[in-house]
Amino acid sequence: MENSRCENCIIRQFNSLRAMSKEELKKVSDSKTTKKLKKGEPLFEEGEKLNGVFCVRNGVSKLSKLSANGKDQIVKLATKGEVIGQRSVIAEESANLSAIAVSDMEVCFIPKESINTTLQSNPNFTLEVLRHMAHDLKEADDVIVNMSQKTVKQRVAEAFLYLKNNFGVDEDGFLMLTLSREDISNVVGTATESAIRIISDFKKQGLIHTSGKKIGIKDEKKLQDLVDGF
Amino acid sequence: MENSRCENCIIRQFNSLRAMSKEELKKVSDSKTTKKLKKGEPLFEEGEKLNGVFCVRNGVSKLSKLSANGKDQIVKLATKGEVIGQRSVIAEESANLSAIAVSDMEVCFIPKESINTTLQSNPNFTLEVLRHMAHDLKEADDVIVNMSQKTVKQRVAEAFLYLKNNFGVDEDGFLMLTLSREDISNVVGTATESAIRIISDFKKQGLIHTSGKKIGIKDEKKLQDLVDGF
DNA sequence: TTCAGAAGATGACAAATGTCATAGTACGCC
DNA sequence: GGCGTACTATGACATTTGTCATCTTCTGAA
User: Fold this and answer.
1) What is the pLDDT of residue B68?
2) CB contact under 8 A, A149 and B87
3) Over chain B, what is the mean pLDDT?
4) What pTM was computed for the model?
5) Contact B123/A at CB under 8 A
6) Which of B136, B68, B72, B150 is nearest to A139 (CA)?
7) Model pLDDT, residue B191
8) Protein-strand C interface by C-beta, 7 A
9) If we measure between CA atoms, which residue out of A146, A167, A155 comes closest to residue A215?
């Protein structure tokens, strides 16, 4: 495949791999494999042993965990440039979350050996990974606060703004990343029916418009006000 | 103070400092200061710039964040052997959370310079810090799932079991760490009145007993069943 | 020791959210 | 093009949780 060497891959500019030396990157590139996934296919499931990490070249994956009541909670959406599975590889634990494609994806699989040897020898790389994880931890803490202190309506509004800011909109103004109502409810942590009701409500209030599953934001300011508690 | 050299400090066995070399540890020890805090006093507040990290020698601190509705959400309780503030120092950001003593505390303050130079030169240390943060991230993800998918009652029950497992019980069977009802509600993410009601309820059902603020667990199994959804 | 203020407890009610039932709608497959 | 299945939508109702008011109990400082 053309352009398939890590050294040339523009994606790595966005993640920790940029702190690798030329030689390290070469090794990674020689050991990596590329994989395509269709929407709905899993990269890995909760509890699985991971033999490496996944670097997202294209598409989006949801990271979720099944709770005792049988519902999935989506903890994070990972997109182009992000590395998935590094937490498990670093902690030498089996996966705490499932990773499932929510759009067609193209990912590189990097065996953990390449990662581990670099972690032990290149402090710059380790530090870079550490910085990324520090960032993820902050985001997770913020999610905890949102989950426990905001209403479902506020969380839905926030989710839409998040989707707009992180994945953008298409030429017709619809969110690029289209999630099913169920996925939306699993991001927000609520019943699917509740999410649907709130979406209907937002539509009636003129905050958003929809076409099938697609959602477009009409009044960003009012949505933001709602999130902020006005 | 006797025993105040990091090299001799048994606490460091529990945290990332154990991966430091003798010389690095010596430098840290020379630059550190020790501080005593009374219950209720802050180590630092959300938004503050941190010039170093705190290593807990004794006592417990709550890490919390104020949400828009004026309530604090407690994200984590840090105790003996844990290092507080490393996330902010590593990410070079101001503190995302406030750290306030929930019991009298003794902490060491380690200036960030000692940490940063070691991070850049000693991959073992960096990797050790990374592993700790990976662990924290997993815990945070689990909290997200609990917050969004469990009922308040389940979360209260879980909080009590957590307090027992992590801080133990005194000779009379009461939880060693005594939190105010408000702190409990801020851990669980609910209104104080709701937490109080649930505590009354648990008492009536014979799951716990109380004496003033102190709480003792009477039927651990039933509490666990409750958490698991039975 | 006493007293004031904080923390704990409880009732009554309102609001938010979940659950179950049912109907409409879209979309891939034959 | 039709059909079946999965997704979306909505109503009715139950349950959970929050809010406000009030009372009681504890605790620390004068």
Assistant:
1) 85
2) no
3) 94
4) 0.95
5) yes
6) B136
7) 97
8) A 69, 151-153, 189-191, 193-194, 212-213; B 180-182, 192-193, 196-197, 199-200, 210, 213
9) A167
List all residues 6 or more positions away from A2 whose beta carbon is below 8 Å from its beta carbon: none
- Report the run of H or E that residue B99 belongs to, with start and end: strand B98-101
For B121, the enclosing helix (H) or strand (E) is helix B112-121
Question: What is the C-alpha separation between A125 and A130, in angstroms, rounded?
Answer: 8
Q: What is the pLDDT of residue B142?
A: 97
Q: Residue B53 and residue B84: Cα distance in Å, rounded? A: 6
**pLDDT tens digits for range A44-90:** 999 999 999 999 999 999 999 999 888 999 999 999 999 999 999 99
**Amino acid A185 CA to nucleotide D11 C1' distance, rounded Å:** 20
Tell me the CA distances in angstroms from A121 to A24, A36, A133, A165, B120, one per residue in order: 10, 31, 19, 37, 11
Q: What is the pLDDT of residue B3?
A: 54
Secondary-structure breakdown of chain A: helix, strand, coil percentages, each rounded to the nearest 5: 50, 25, 30
Contact flag, residue A184 CB and nucleic strand D, below 7 A: no
The CA–C1' separation of B191 and C15, in angstroms, is 14
Q: Which nucleotide is nearest to B180 (CA to C1')?
A: C7
CA of B26 to C1' of C13 (A): 63
Cβ pair A141:B67 closer than 8 A: no
Joined together, the tokens standing for residue A43 give: 């990269």
Helix A152-167 and helix A192-204, axial crossing angle in degrees, nearest 10: 80
Q: Is A152 in the B-facing interface, judged by CB distances under 8 Å?
A: no
Q: Alpha-carbon distance B135 to B146, whole Å?
A: 17
